[in-house]
Prior knowledge:
There is one protein chain. By secondary structure, this protein is an alpha+beta fold. The protein is built from three helices and five strands, in the order αβααββββ. Strands 1, 2, 3, 4 and 5 form a five-stranded antiparallel beta sheet that branches. It starts with a helix and ends in an 8-residue tail after the last strand. The relative contact order is 0.22.
Amino acid sequence: MKNLILATVVTVLAGCAGTNFSWDNARQVKQGMNEQQVLTLLGKPNLTKSSPEGLVYVWSFANGLTGSVRTVSVVMKDGVVVSAPVVPDNF
């Protein structure tokens, strides 16, 4: 019985990858927020890359069991959001 429970837990965990953020939290990110405020809402980004506009923080989450994928990005310059995500209400 223990092995069945362990196998189920491992299967569920293996089916997901990334930072499990919510669309509601992503909608709260606004231009002018500081880095800590964004991290509190979305968690640690999966990727940070440099661009001419500033640092681009990217959050992605994939659920292998349902096939759903969510990705959102925020551009930060000098620790402040200069480009916030636009998330439609139907997400």
